[in-house]
Amino acid sequence: MATKKYTVTLPEELAEEIRREVGPGAFSAYVTQAIESRRERDRLGELVEWMQEEGGPLTDEELAAADAELREAGQRFARPEAGDDLLKAG
Q1: pLDDT higher than threshold 80 for residue 67
Q2: How far apart are CA 57 and CA 34, in angstroms?
Q3: Does residue 19 contact residue 27 with C-beta atoms inside 8 Å?
Q4: Residues 58, 66: contact at Cβ < 8 Å?
Q5: How far is residue 65 from each of residues 7, 62, 70, measured CA to CA in Å?
Q6: Per-domain residue ranges of the chain
Q7: What is the mean pLDDT of the chain?
């Protein structure tokens, strides 16, 4: 991907904190990833808006089902898989 140098203004304390954490050579990559992440969230928000315009707002039933799926996924990812304990022990 082609790159171009831009000048941006950041709070000094924040910029220096990030630079200390990632190192001076990785600062641009960190900022790029942050911008990409924000842009992805913005686009997802636009998609949700469009979907609600097209299909109407979610029903209480649909919201409850989505909440249940999120809780289930969170529990699944929070607990180690059965084989993980064996790998750590070895």
Answers
A1: yes
A2: 30
A3: yes
A4: yes
A5: 46, 5, 9
A6: 7-56, 58-90
A7: 87
- The stretch 62-73 carries a mean pLDDT of 92
The answer to whether the pTM exceeds 0.70 is: no
The arithmetic mean of pLDDT across residues 13-36, rounded, is 94
Contact 27, 18 (CB under 8 A): yes
The pair of structure tokens assigned to 3 is: 């790159």
Please tell me the distance from the alpha carbon of residue 75 to that of residue 55, in angstroms, as a whole number: 30
Average pLDDT, integer, range 40-54 = 92
Rounded to the nearest 10 degrees, how much is the dihedral formed by the CA atoms of 81, 87, 89, 90? Answer: 160
- Which of these, 72, 56, 75, 55, lies nearest to 64 by C-alpha position? 72
Please name the residue that has the structure tokens 């315009």.
53
Do you know the residue count of the chain?
90
The number of helix segments (H) and strand segments (E) in the chain equals: 4, 0
